[in-house]
Amino acid sequence: MRNKDFITGKVPITKEEVRAISINKLDLLNAKTFIDVGAGTGSVSIEAGYSYPNLKVIAIERNDDAYELVNKNKEKFNLKNVEVIKAYAPIKLDGDIKADAIFLGGTGKKLEEIIDWSKELLVPGGRLVANFIIIDTFYEMLRLIKEKGFKEIDVTVLNVAKLEKLGTGEYFKPHNPIYIISCEKGVE
Amino acid sequence: MRNKDFITGKVPITKEEVRAISINKLDLLNAKTFIDVGAGTGSVSIEAGYSYPNLKVIAIERNDDAYELVNKNKEKFNLKNVEVIKAYAPIKLDGDIKADAIFLGGTGKKLEEIIDWSKELLVPGGRLVANFIIIDTFYEMLRLIKEKGFKEIDVTVLNVAKLEKLGTGEYFKPHNPIYIISCEKGVE
Amino acid sequence: MRNKDFITGKVPITKEEVRAISINKLDLLNAKTFIDVGAGTGSVSIEAGYSYPNLKVIAIERNDDAYELVNKNKEKFNLKNVEVIKAYAPIKLDGDIKADAIFLGGTGKKLEEIIDWSKELLVPGGRLVANFIIIDTFYEMLRLIKEKGFKEIDVTVLNVAKLEKLGTGEYFKPHNPIYIISCEKGVE
Amino acid sequence: MRNKDFITGKVPITKEEVRAISINKLDLLNAKTFIDVGAGTGSVSIEAGYSYPNLKVIAIERNDDAYELVNKNKEKFNLKNVEVIKAYAPIKLDGDIKADAIFLGGTGKKLEEIIDWSKELLVPGGRLVANFIIIDTFYEMLRLIKEKGFKEIDVTVLNVAKLEKLGTGEYFKPHNPIYIISCEKGVE
């Protein structure tokens, strides 16, 4: 999906190239349940729900504006498989929910708690994918997933630049470098 | 899909991050027919065919080794919806084929012919996506699609680096910068 | 020199990392005369004049604000060896001036004329260095210097990002990618 | 100086763009003494000594092959102002040496000791510049210089790619991303 497909407000939206890679690394094709933590505009949740109609998507977002945006985008694309929860992760989820994949897009101060909670929720072999622009949080996450025994750790730094007009010519306008971590809960 | 999922030989394989973005830009979700020109190892064809079981994929590849690899990967993933044609594009396709999306991954000297042929084959609004590492070919393609009236031109340069071990530490090993062009055949 | 050392206004200043590389590629250590075309804030002229007191620096700048800035910076660093000319290059220079090195930082529409004029002015083996963010102009320059027989062509694309505060953490804020071309007038 | 100017062996050489920026950040113009720790091929020492004939350069290198290379390059450029010491930093230097600038190009396991030793040796306002490709060491250095009260901390990540021939075209071949840290010993 293109970024212009989404209703956005002042909430920063994951850029489409970053979203494409992140969703790809989540391996959602045969997944049943996907949790999007700190959903922001919800673009990851929405594209996941739209691309995989049989997938159950749970988007968790605590910010008022962002929460509303996810709901607006959910409506725009008429997605029945996306549930939006207004809360500050980690939270206790109803029922006996297990996740095949979890995405961390807006992790703040509770990084370790969220990683532990993700490990609890993930099925064996389940995928955990996270995006960072802050190097401190990136580095902390990398340390934590190694320490906590996640497997198949893959770390990418992505520098995207887009061709834009400038005067009578065109130049490559750079986006912020993004660190993408993906890993799996091991099969014990 | 991860790069390690594919059978590869000496044929260079599109890196998984580049493939994820390229497939995303092809908008295959509701597409019927997709043509992959210069399929290489076929990773784009295979991932497209695997991710979208209702999509008809036509992979065109003239190189012997590459042709065999696409077939091996097709077998590995047991894909009935991928047809592999050993030929040097542009070629005349049987029947009255129209494409919703075309990917150029291995365009060589016949760039303008292939673009004209793509425009013929594409349905109105159909997507043309191309990857380049050679700057000459990238610029030439950009010039040609503008001249030939393609719409929604979007140009990305992608610098991916992957964390790898070096001695007792880790460093970001860079991949070659890739230029990704996507555009649409206009609706007349 | 650090960027904060310079008086700047609304005129864009060459970033210090780009300036360091460009001046390095100009090989000014044993040069007598250096011409800076489209001097902008004059940071390249000023750093060159400051670093090499025996070098004669000629800065050509047509923009009013920029012209004034070069002069202000010249004064700030008390540089007697920097001459600032308010003009639109190429111009006829007084006397029998030959240049050991020429820098193009703000080339606009007269690219080919400026390259020809540079070739005239340069001593055999003299260095021509140029910075671009516009890809069209970069590519045109590359084509022209090949066509006109410049030697030792070296092309760098430079992606610089600087660590900056963001909330309670730090992220790498990217600068625009810069194309740096350097080459030499051959010795006939 | 160009990389081809140096005698190199199997010892990895700092790329010329990285060297230009690093030397620039060392502010050697009015410096008296510069120490290059882990000199490698010595390209930083040699270019510093060559560019600033009045500068005293002390290159410390423990590796046999690298030590010999620094000496060979010193001879090639006939530099009387470069002293090469075969040792594993930190070491006690003769006399009452104070440094205006210190460069860390090959810091291994003794990072904290070397930073402490650098702080001892530097004059107030003296410059400490370091290059890293290993992210662990980069982060550790950043943490340590903050902790130890260094000032004017400036952190750059540099992605350089060079245009090279590929088949009948040209592509940008990427170098490893380099983290460049520069800072100053505060004036107490």
UniProtKB/TrEMBL annotation, chains A, B, C, D:
Presence of keyword S-adenosyl-L-methionine: yes
Record keywords, A-Z: Cobalamin biosynthesis, Methyltransferase, S-adenosyl-L-methionine, Transferase
Annotated metabolic or biological route of this protein: Cofactor biosynthesis; adenosylcobalamin biosynthesis
Secretion signal, residue range per the UniProt entry = none
Mind telling me which residue stretches traverse the membrane in this protein? none
- Please list the residue ranges annotated as the Methyltransferase domain: 31-103
Please name the Pfam families in this protein's record: Methyltransf_31
Q: Which domain of life is it from?
A: Bacteria
**NCBIfam families noted in UniProt:** CbiT (TIGR02469), PRK08287.1 (NF006138)
For this entry, the protein name equals Decarboxylating cobalt-precorrin-6B (C(15))-methyltransferase
What species does this protein belong to? Intestinibacter bartlettii
Q: What is the lineage of its organism?
A: Bacteria, Bacillati, Bacillota, Clostridia, Peptostreptococcales
